[in-house]
């Protein structure tokens, strides 16, 4: 600690240079936080997939609908406990940037199959018996200040109403659900499929996909195969997969996020390594007479090495902490796109670890040079 | 009086390209505690090399160097650093202060190597600045000081850890006559009033007059000459 004032003063010897170096590190770690956070959110989605659930979609594409009548057929298969269905509503609230993850569902089936979603019984009853009823996640309700009894308009970018050809739909909030095991799920909007199906202008009698609750996860492959076999050679062939496989496939459609994120971060950090490394080397080179004086005063070779290294660590850790703090503050803004609530702590710790590695990489060569400095030669300017 | 510095048959050779150059030739020297010695001689005569050996900045190629009764020519790098921290105070021609630190922080630098608390370090540094008459400039950075003031801060830094020996390499070489006299007067005061042993390299005969003894060097050898 007693060397901190010396380190701090050395760091700010050339204020502008240090400021620009710090800024480049801050931006790199802001990028690291955001990208790694996205990557982490996707991985978390896959990790949290329920092993007891299968997702059944059209064999052609996720966007192709399936007949509603499949519900009973799938449910009659051995090993299947319950089936629920959902469709993609594609909607926003008031402004296109206020995207809302909304799905028409069967209230009873939905909360049986997704048992981790918690809704008070009286609210579930109200949901079942209110045609225009909707239940929303606690986080979504908080964001828009919605409460039970509110009438909420959503504009769908897909579905028009049969009655007036309009895309504006109104719902009455009758419940607010929570997901204690995963708060990021608390931003969805569920409403009555029956109301939706009767009111929509096209594609009646169809659903987007089925979620199938199975009795034994070890039978997942066999039950999935049985479902696909059941509808083989029909007009609407299916593709059944575990929830985890479905999530992975869905994310693959966006692209190999991990691959993209890793490549971008490698490019950023290699550039950062060269930029900050050369700055650090130049800074130490300019201070060779001063380092020689420190040695003259009795600072050992090792102590001088540690001082230079500590300077790099101080710069990198402080700047990285600022970048990661910025990422932590900005990350929740991605909620509408990623269903994530906050930057995971492991991303912050990984970032600080990266900063330490970066500090060692850029600090060690000049620190080594400072350590091997010959006092007589350095003082003579040789 | 006992010798505080003792050199026996000291030689120093440097490698310059393929050539080996002997800068000091089998040199013997004894300096007593409390002495103020001026080391004079033409450029290239080996004055600074001799000073570097006494100050533990360099090692001889041959011979023995003892300071305060301790053989320093065989010490390891880290032991030599500890020796410098404890026994030697350096004053350079161009002050060699840290530009980003205040005068007081510069003076405190050698004390970072001690176990003194922050409060004690501040107190010692302030005392050293008072001795050189610069306490009121404690918070100023080197760039805000005149040459003479900067050299006083450098002397305070050399003094602050209470070293056995003050080693000064052309301490007035960068100063005008009046300021140089003030600095030399200060060194003389430290020698007479505080009993500091001082070895000073200088080209300036007027500066050498402040010393108790003058040693002349030429081509790597010494010729002692007493001053009144």
Automatic annotation (TrEMBL), chain A:
Q: Which residues form the signal peptide?
A: none
Main localization category? membrane
Q: Which residues cross the membrane?
A: 257-277, 304-331, 343-364
- Annotated coiled-coil positions are none
Looking at the record, the residues that make up the MacB-like periplasmic core domain are: 22-229
Q: Where is the ABC3 transporter permease C-terminal domain?
A: 265-375
Which PANTHER family would you find in this protein's record? ABC TRANSPORTER PERMEASE (PTHR43738:SF3), ABC TRANSPORTER, MEMBRANE PROTEIN (PTHR43738)
- Report the protein name in the record: Putative ABC transport system permease protein
Species this protein is from: Solimonas aquatica
Automatic annotation (TrEMBL), chain B:
SMART domains associated with the record: AAA
Cited Gene3D superfamilies? P-loop containing nucleotide triphosphate hydrolases
Question: CDD domains recorded for this chain?
Answer: ABC_MJ0796_LolCDE_FtsE
Q: Which SUPFAM superfamilies match?
A: P-loop containing nucleoside triphosphate hydrolases
- Locate the ABC transporter domain: which residues? 5-227
As for family, the record states: Belongs to the ABC transporter superfamily. Macrolide exporter (TC 3.A.1.122) family.
User: Could you identify this protein by its name?
Assistant: Putative ABC transport system ATP-binding protein
Provide the species name: Solimonas aquatica
């Amino acid at each position: 600690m007693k060397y901190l004032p010396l380190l701090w003063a050395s760091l700010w010897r050339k204020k502008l240079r240090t400021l620009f170096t710090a800024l480049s590190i801050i931006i790199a770690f802001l990028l690291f936080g955001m990208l790694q956070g996205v990557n982490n959110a996707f991985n978390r989605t896959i990790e949290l997939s329920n092993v007891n659930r299968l997702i059944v979609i059209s064999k052609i594409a996720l966007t192709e609908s399936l007949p509603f009548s499949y519900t009973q057929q799938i449910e009659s298969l051995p090993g299947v406990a319950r089936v629920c269905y959902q469709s993609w509503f594609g909607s926003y609230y008031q402004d296109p940037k206020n995207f809302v993850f909304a799905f028409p569902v069967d209230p009873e089936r939905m909360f049986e199959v997704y048992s981790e979603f918690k809704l008070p019984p009286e609210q579930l009853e109200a949901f079942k018996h209110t045609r225009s009823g909707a239940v929303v996640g606690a986080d979504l309700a908080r964001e828009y200040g919605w409460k039970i009894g509110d009438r909420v308009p959503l504009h769908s970018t897909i579905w028009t109403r049969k009655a007036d050809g309009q895309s504006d739909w109104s719902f009455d909030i009758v419940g607010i659900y929570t997901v204690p095991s995963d708060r990021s799920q608390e931003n969805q909007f569920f409403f009555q499929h029956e109301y939706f199906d009767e009111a929509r202008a096209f594609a009646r009698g169809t659903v987007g996909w089925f979620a199938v609750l199975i009795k034994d996860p070890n039978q997942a492959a066999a039950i999935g195969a049985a479902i696909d076999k059941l509808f083989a050679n029909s007009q609407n062939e299916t593709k059944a997969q575990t929830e985890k496989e479905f999530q992975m496939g869905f994310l693959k459609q966006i692209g190999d996020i991990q691959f993209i994120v890793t490549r971008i971060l490698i490019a950023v950090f290699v550039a950062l390594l060269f930029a900050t490394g050369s700055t650090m080397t130049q800074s130490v080179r300019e201070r060779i007479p001063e380092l020689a004086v420190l040695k003259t005063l009795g600072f050992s070779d090792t102590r001088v090495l540690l001082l230079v290294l500590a300077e790099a660590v101080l710069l990198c850790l402080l700047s990285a902490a600022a970048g990661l703090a910025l990422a932590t503050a900005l990350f929740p803004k991605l909620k509408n796109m990623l269903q994530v609530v906050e930057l995971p702590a492991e991303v912050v710790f990984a970032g600080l670890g990266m900063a330490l590695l970066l500090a060692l990489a850029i600090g060690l060569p000049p620190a080594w040079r400072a350590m091997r400095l010959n006092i007589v030669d350095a003082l003579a300017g040789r | 009086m006992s010798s505080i510095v003792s050199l026996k048959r000291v030689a120093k050779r440097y490698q310059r390209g393929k050539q080996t150059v002997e800068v000091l030739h089998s040199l013997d020297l004894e300096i007593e505690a409390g002495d103020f010695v001026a080391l004079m001689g033409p450029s290239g005569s080996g004055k600074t090399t001799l000073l570097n050996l006494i100050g533990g900045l360099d090692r001889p190629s041959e011979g023995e160097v003892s300071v305060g009764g301790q053989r320093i020519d065989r010490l390891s790098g880290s032991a030599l650093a500890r020796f410098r921290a404890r026994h030697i105070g350096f004053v350079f021609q161009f002050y060699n202060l840290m530009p980003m630190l205040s005068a007081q922080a510069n003076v405190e630098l050698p004390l970072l190597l001690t176990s003194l608390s922050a409060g004690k370090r501040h107190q010692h540094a302030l005392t050293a600045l008072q001795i050189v008459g610069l306490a009121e400039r404690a918070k100023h950075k080197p760039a805000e000081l005149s040459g003479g003031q900067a050299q006083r801060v450098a002397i305070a830094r050399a003094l602050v850890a209470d070293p056995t020996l003050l080693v000064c390499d052309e301490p007035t070489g960068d100063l005008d006559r009046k300021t140089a006299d003030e600095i030399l007067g200060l060194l003389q005061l430290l020698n007479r009033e505080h009993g500091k042993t001082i070895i000073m390299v200088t080209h300036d005969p007027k500066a050498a007059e402040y010393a108790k003894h003058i040693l002349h060097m030429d081509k790597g050898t010494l010729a002692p000459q007493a001053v009144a």
